[in-house]
UniProtKB/TrEMBL annotation:
Keyword set includes Acetylation: no
Classification via InterPro entries: GNAT-like, HAD-like_sf, HAD-SF_hydro_IA, HAD-SF_hydro_IIA, HAD_sf
Organism from which the protein derives: Blastococcus saxobsidens
Molecular function per GO: phosphatase activity
The protein's name in its UniProt record: HAD-IIA family hydrolase
UniProt keyword Hydrolase, yes or no: yes
GCN5-related N-acetyltransferase-like domain mapped to chain residues: 291-367
This protein's GO CC annotations: cytoplasm
A Pfam family assignment: Hydrolase_6
Annotated keywords: Hydrolase
């Protein structure tokens, strides 16, 4: 594994060769990375096939506990990302391992969530019960589209009666074609708030899931690919692995800029097609930072940063150019500049635009756009 060198600002070094050639295994999150809802992120299945063609192996590490590894593998294969159940690690499996260690074989557990939760518990040698009246020793709560009041009520009663509350993950939201929707963390919060008991969380960012995927694949230099700062990126850092954040899920530029140090990625891409291209470095040129055609420097007065866009005919270029179609060079430079100034804490960034090109890009991101 490859933790960042001491003193290195995340994103600053880039990757001069495509990550698919620099890392031997990609540990991929699923929701928001490979697919959103039932459909693949456009271009990603072909990109993963291309990454495999140059020798990169793939493992799938998901906090979504609703489905079994077999079901996940079938879905991936239907999306033209061939996978077997042995390639998939779910947070239900992680939770079952935790509970088995707490209770031992034959422990009685009440599952809350999709079928993947109960299946993982049975596979771990635990006894699945259906109600609080059957005296479960633990409640394992994972995501499921059918979770409603009845299941939550049974969980509350069981926890009040002394059952240990274990959550497969605490993701507050899940990505969808209609935007973020309630995730398992939102439902876990209901049980926590009613019972007053803090649950044990088994999934990412706990490093166990990534470590298990490394063990299965024999990875020597893994790269975690995810869309969430609080699970994928923090989980990678805690596991000692490099990370690639993709913007095809729940994280936007504002959230990324405000990331705490443990949640700052090593690489950044619009989506998982970023595995196939080099990632430029960010250069510190003395009170200014550059990446490609974009420059960031301290604004006059206060703590703001000023973003200057590429220059073209008449001194103004559109925010999206052929050399930088998605503004990632600008975002990389902003992140490195802001994180250099705030190395130990995560705070929102205030950014001003030096020109219309920068202003258009900042407006797309929902950040401050006031020209100098």
């Amino acid at each position: 594994m490859n933790p960042p060198a001491a003193g290195t600002v995340p994103l600053s070094s880039g990757c001069p060769t495509p990550p698919s050639e620099s890392y031997d295994v990609a540990l991929l999150d699923l929701d928001g990375v490979v697919y959103v809802g039932p459909d693949a992120v456009p271009g990603v299945p072909a990109a993963l096939a291309a990454a495999r063609a140059v020798g990169m192996r793939l493992g799938f590490v998901t906090n979504n506990a609703a489905r079994t590894p077999d079901q996940v593998a079938e879905h991936l294969t239907a999306l033209q990302v061939p996978a077997g159940s042995e390639d998939v690690i779910t947070s239900s499996q992680a939770a079952a391992t935790v509970v088995s260690g707490l209770l031992g074989p034959g422990g009685r557990v009440l599952p809350v969530g999709g079928p993947g939760v109960a299946a993982a518990l049975r596979a771990a040698g635990l006894v699945v019960v259906g109600t609080a009246g059957e005296q479960p020793e633990a409640v394992v709560q994972g995501y499921g589209t059918e979770v409603g009041w009845a299941q939550l009520a049974e969980a509350v009663v069981a926890v009040r009666n002394g059952a240990r509350h274990v959550a497969t993950n605490a993701d507050a939201t899940i990505p969808s074609p209609r935007g973020p929707l309630p995730g398992n963390g939102a439902m876990v919060g209901v049980v926590r708030d009613v019972t007053g008991q803090t649950p044990l969380v088994a999934g990412k960012p706990d490093p166990a899931m990534h470590a298990e995927c490394v063990r299965r694949t024999g990875a020597r230099r893994p790269l975690v690919v995810g869309d969430r700062l609080d699970t994928d990126i923090e989980g990678a850092r805690r596991a000692g692995a490099d990370s690639l954040l993709v913007l095809s899920g729940v994280t936007d530029p504002g959230l990324l800029l405000a990331a705490e140090p443990v949640r700052r990625p090593d690489l950044l891409a619009a989506d998982a097609t970023g595995l196939l291209v080099p990632h430029p470095r960010v250069d510190d040129i003395g009170r200014a930072w550059t990446c490609g055609d974009w420059t960031v420097r301290p604004a006059e007065g206060g703590d703001a940063l000023e973003l200057a866009g590429p220059r073209g005919d008449g001194g103004v270029a559109p925010a999206r150019t052929g050399a930088n179609p998605d503004g990632l060079e600008a975002l990389r430079a902003l992140c490195v500049a802001h994180w250099t100034r705030h190395p130990d804490d995560g705070v929102p960034a205030r950014v001003v635009a030096a020109d219309p090109a920068a202003g258009a890009l900042l407006a797309d991101w929902g950040l401050t756009t006031r020209p100098r």
